[in-house]
Inverse folding.
């Protein structure tokens, strides 16, 4: 606590408030209101959502590499999550006959049901927030969070561009 106060002494009051708010938000576990859905952890639910909503039109499955890119995690991490989902009968994996390194993943009917339940639970939680804030403040929150996302996305893109250009300090 003392160290936090020492670090914060040089910061403007609004910077301190933003830092405090982000820390509180991060600790609140808002994204885990329903800790599990049908025994699935939040990380597994994210994979199910990714498969459900990430398939290209006309295709019923996604490649592991696509899931990895969309979720911004490594392929081995996705593979571990898929093993658990497959063991619970929520997904099926199919090896590509032309490229044995490529694996397609699709939801089973049980996986579709769990995904629908998770979406229902998330929607109910967000509807509660909308009721609490009201429609006007909810719309303001959406606009502000979108701006925050764009800001940090630009910052990340600038860092990556600097690294690509070799501007990074050694």
């Amino acid at each position: 606590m003392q160290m936090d106060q020492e670090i914060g002494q040089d910061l403007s009051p609004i910077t301190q408030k933003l830092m405090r708010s982000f820390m509180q938000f991060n600790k609140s576990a808002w994204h885990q209101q329903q800790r599990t859905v049908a025994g699935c952890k939040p990380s597994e639910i994210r994979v199910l959502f990714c498969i459900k909503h990430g398939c290209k039109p006309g295709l019923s499955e996604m490649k592991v590499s696509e899931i990895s890119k969309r979720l911004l995690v490594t392929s081995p991490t996705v593979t571990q999550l898929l093993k658990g989902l497959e063991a619970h009968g929520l997904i099926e994996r199919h090896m590509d006959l032309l490229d044995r390194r490529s694996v397609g993943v699709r939801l089973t009917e049980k996986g579709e049901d769990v995904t629908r339940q998770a979406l229902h639970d998330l929607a109910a939680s967000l509807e509660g927030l909308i009721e609490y804030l009201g429609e006007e403040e909810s719309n303001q929150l959406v606009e502000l969070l979108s701006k925050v996302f764009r800001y940090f996305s630009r910052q990340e893109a600038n860092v990556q561009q600097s690294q690509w250009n070799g501007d990074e300090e050694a």
Observations:
- The two ends are 33 Å apart (CA to CA).
- Residues 135-165 form the longest helix (31 residues).
